[in-house]
């Protein structure tokens, strides 16, 4: 049985290789940044995961998941996103509260509980942040890939997912009344700093380039 930490590494690798621009490999520094750890610490864990045949990599080189590693990572991610959905929809947690709790619940080792949870929620395709929930057969619903920053002036779009799921950003979105499904029209782009003027419902907002790079839209 894998430790919770090992499962977290595999889940992080799945995110970086399957969801971040569809890359098949990730670098040690990419993984370290994602996990908030030092590259040397990450390298030690990767050595352990390689010995267990869950990852393929050379020291400080590119990393990829093996078939068995990907299967485990997919199951952990599936549980995490189902629990986030349950916490929001059933227990009425706000979307900035669910991640830390789901991080604990995702390590429960029960296939039956996971399938019952999925059925109870009526088999959702996406979690509260717009992230796709892996299916029991390993398939993944399509993920939005268009950044708000790439939408042209005078074009309209709909918020599909949040790339930055930090509590501070999610709370800021709530203050602006922006959530999954919110319709946005781009009124202006400022070339000097990449900021944008948006029409959200009837309100005009000016947001930073960092903000615009943190929302995925349809």
TrEMBL record:
Q: Where is the HTH dtxR-type domain?
A: 1-66
Q: Which Pfam families match?
A: Fe_dep_repr_C (PF02742), Fe_dep_repress (PF01325), FeoA (PF04023)
Its annotated compartments are: Cytoplasm
SUPFAM superfamilies the UniProt entry points to: Iron-dependent repressor protein, dimerization domain, Winged helix' DNA-binding domain
InterPro entries xrefs: DtxR_MntR_Metal-Reg, Fe-transptr_FeoA-like, Fe_dep_repressor, Fe_dep_repressor_sf, FeoA_core_dom, HTH_DTXR, Iron_dep_repressor, WH-like_DNA-bd_sf
Q: Which UniProt keywords apply?
A: Activator, Cytoplasm, DNA-binding, Manganese, Repressor, Transcription, Transcription regulation
Protein purpose = In the presence of manganese, represses expression of mntH and mntS. Up-regulates expression of mntP.
Q: Its family?
A: Belongs to the DtxR/MntR family.
Q: How does it assemble?
A: Homodimer.
Question: What protein does this entry describe?
Answer: Transcriptional regulator MntR
